[in-house]
Amino acid sequence: MTRSATSSDDIYDRFRSARLSPAQRRIARYIVDHRDAAAFLTSESIAQQVGVSQPSVSRFAAALGYARFSDFKRALQKWARSEMSTLAPQSVDASPLYEAISAEIANLQWLGNSAGLGEQISRVGAAIMSSKPLPVVGLRFSRSFAEHFAYLGAKVHSGISVIDRGDTQAKESIARAYSQGATWCLFFILPRYPREACELVRYARQMGLKVAVLSDESFATVGHEADELITVRLGSGLLFDTSAAINIMSSALLHAMADSSPGSSQEGLERFERHASDLEVFED
């Protein structure tokens, strides 16, 4: 039975859960990246923009569970309008910095309104905390996020390691972690999505690991391999993307890890403080 679109989140949930063909993933990617414009285009116009046939767009809407393209279009318009209403008024003379900050505020508001996000963070945090060891993967732009997560995470999880290259050595590291008892692998994959990172997701799952991915919402159009996909929105108003939301999600995930195993987390934190004091790491 076809579901009805009842909220702005509903259509995005369908993107995440639907099994789409390569052509349909291209359509989904276009719509996510151009939602405000796509919401008012005909199926023929969307097809022309993506480079597919008009029936492909109709089949895409059906794959999401809509009986007619017009039902999908109404849901898409509701999605676009709900987001535009959350944006703060901006001065016509606003600087790029002001606009970037305003966009990040809107991104965080969207994140705060994401249904089920808190439960997902708790679930994933507990799962990756139980994985000993825990490989954390971040290539290219995502490398710094993986390193930051692993640096802080090592204070509560003794088996974290970073994989920051996408060659055969990375596969060896993943295979070694699996042989040592790892059950999960955590990926940071932000635009532009490195081909090697996507291949490592598939490889990790082939090895028998479960995979959690922190990425932006567009990754949902290609991220079906992930067992858990935690999505944020990035700011694109400056020369390079801004990513306040990914930092918050990373910290929230670390907090959930510690909460899931308070005894060992406290022991790890106290051990770090003893070592830091013995080595006089910090200025008092």
If you had to describe this structure to a student in words, what would you say it looks like?
With 284 residues, the chain is an alpha/beta fold. Helices cover 56% and strands 10% of the residues. It contains 13 helices and five strands. The protein has helices spanning 8-17, 22-33, 35-38, 43-50, 54-63, 69-84, 96-112, 117-129, 143-153, 168-179, 195-207, 244-260, 262-278; strands at 134-138, 160-163, 184-189, 210-216, 228-232. Strands 2-1-3-4-5 form a five-stranded parallel beta sheet, sandwiched between helices. Helix 2 (22-33) packs across helix 5, helix 9 (143-153) packs parallel to helix 12 (244-260) and helix 12 crosses helix 13.
Structure described in brief:
With 284 residues, the protein is of the alpha/beta class.
Keywords:
five-stranded parallel beta sheet, alpha/beta, 284 residues, globular
